């Protein structure tokens, strides 16, 4: 069983080192690339105001957050939920930096102690679509995922959209599955003929062709974050 969690946060500002805090965490669970509905969503009282620019993005006011639990009150539940899963984040350094700051503030291990594998979909998108805009909104447009209901940023909403984007971006390898039963496969006549070995022309791939072949395989590796089938069968 492969368990993945698509994670997003909202914060009071852009810099955890300057005291900005997490105000919302949203996680969407995937088991073997299927949405399970076992999601995690909490609003958090940051014990400070949001910066004006951040407030314009997420719309979560100090008044709204004033009666929400503090991070210390949800951390045990959060760490238990994420333990052992692969984490998928868009622009991972930002969210990981904030989560690590919150965990360190409570003298707890950093995120990779709970989840050793983290996938950054922004890096993935830049590799797949170099030179293009790769924001979450841009990727939703590119993969025809509706985000018309996204008026403000929200951790759970953005995690749900990112889950759809991630599945779309990494779907390619699944298309190589073959469902033909052996008994149903068309039978082909095997033709053999004798030819002296010395008369067989062997054309070796050029360095340029080998380079193009390696680039193609590397692209497939990056899409699935693993070795593609053509590397595992040789």
TrEMBL record:
Protein role: DNA polymerase III is a complex, multichain enzyme responsible for most of the replicative synthesis in bacteria. The epsilon subunit contain the editing function and is a proofreading 3'-5' exonuclease.
Catalytic activity: DNA(n) + a 2'-deoxyribonucleoside 5'-triphosphate = DNA(n+1) + diphosphate
Subunit structure of this chain's protein: DNA polymerase III contains a core (composed of alpha, epsilon and theta chains) that associates with a tau subunit. This core dimerizes to form the POLIII' complex. PolIII' associates with the gamma complex (composed of gamma, delta, delta', psi and chi chains) and with the beta chain to form the complete DNA polymerase III complex.
Name of the protein this chain belongs to: DNA polymerase III subunit epsilon
Class of enzymatic activity (EC top level): transferase
InterPro entries: DnaQ, DnaQ_proteo, Ribonucl_H, RNaseH-like_sf, RNaseH_sf
Positions of the Exonuclease domain: 3-175
Database matches in CDD domains: DNA_pol_III_epsilon_Ecoli_like
E.C. designation(s): 2.7.7.7
Gene name per UniProt: dnaQ
The entry's keywords: DNA replication, DNA-directed DNA polymerase, Exonuclease, Hydrolase, Magnesium, Manganese, Metal-binding, Nuclease, Nucleotidyltransferase, Transferase
């Amino acid at each position: 069983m492969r368990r993945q969690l698509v994670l997003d946060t909202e914060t009071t500002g852009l810099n955890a080192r300057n005291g900005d805090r997490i105000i919302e965490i949203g996680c969407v669970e995937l088991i073997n690339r299927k949405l399970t509905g076992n999601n995690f969503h909490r609003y958090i009282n940051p014990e400070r105001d949001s910066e004006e620019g951040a407030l314009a993005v997420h719309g979560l006011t100090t008044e709204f957050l004033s009666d929400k639990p503090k991070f210390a009150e949800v951390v045990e539940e959060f760490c238990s939920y994420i333990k052992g899963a692969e984490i998928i984040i868009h622009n991972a350094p930002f969210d990981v930096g904030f989560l690590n700051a919150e965990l360190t503030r409570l003298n707890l291990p950093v995120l990779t102690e709970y989840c050793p594998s983290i996938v950054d979909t922004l890096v993935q998108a830049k590799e797949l679509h170099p030179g293009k805009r790769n924001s979450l909104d841009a990727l939703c447009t590119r993969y025809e995922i509706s985000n018309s209901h996204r008026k403000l940023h929200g951790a759970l909403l953005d995690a749900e959209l990112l889950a759809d984007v991630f599945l779309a971006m990494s779907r390619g390898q699944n298309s190589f599955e073959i469902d033909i039963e052996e008994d149903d496969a068309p039978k082909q006549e095997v033709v053999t003929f004798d030819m002296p070995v010395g008369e067989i022309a062997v054309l070796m791939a050029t360095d340029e062709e080998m380079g193009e072949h390696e680039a193609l395989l590397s692209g497939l590796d990056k899409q699935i974050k693993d070795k593609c089938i053509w590397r595992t069968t040789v």
